[in-house]
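Let's practice the habit of predicting before peeking. Look at the sequence and jot down your guess about where helices and strands might fall. Then scroll down.
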Amino acid sequence: MQEGKLIVFSAPSGSGKTTIVRHLLDQKELKLDFSISAASREPRPEEKDGVDYYFLDLKEFKRRIKDEEFLEWEEVYRDNFYGTLKSEVERIWASGKNVIFDIDVVGGLDIKKIYPERTLAVFVKPPSIEELKIRLKKRKTESDERINMRVAKASIELATAPQFDHIILNNKLDEALKEAHTLVADFVSPSKDTE
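Done guessing? Here is the structure:
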């Protein structure tokens, strides 16, 4: 199987990484396919199984951990697991594409450790914690308690930014999109191949 490259986008929730990843997926010349993560939580109203996440119940998620079916996984909140199935990366590589991840910082850094030469790890940084809280409230998808948990976690996640290959400050979305496109296009170009 031809192994492609891995492009990791990590950030605190509300930083805009999903918007950036969706934009990059629309750029057909980059030959990207989205790595659908597995999650042990319930889907949100707009989410679809096998599209947004592979929704697994807690028992099934733990069984797959035990069977070493994950490239990486993490218990993000109590009994709330997220992870990348090895089969997902293999599926995308088999189609001749590069894998793009919208993943939390721990998972992103884990993938970089496993495939250091094949991975571009990008951290998307919000302008400030205050702006992050405003963005999360605008979503209207979570309680104030959940938002406060995400904001508290964001402070810890921001400290990991220097461990990534690049940091994109998402202050102006159009500039962040251009910067992300340039980074990814350069990384996936054949002249940058590490083989």
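How did you do? The chain has one domain: 6-188.
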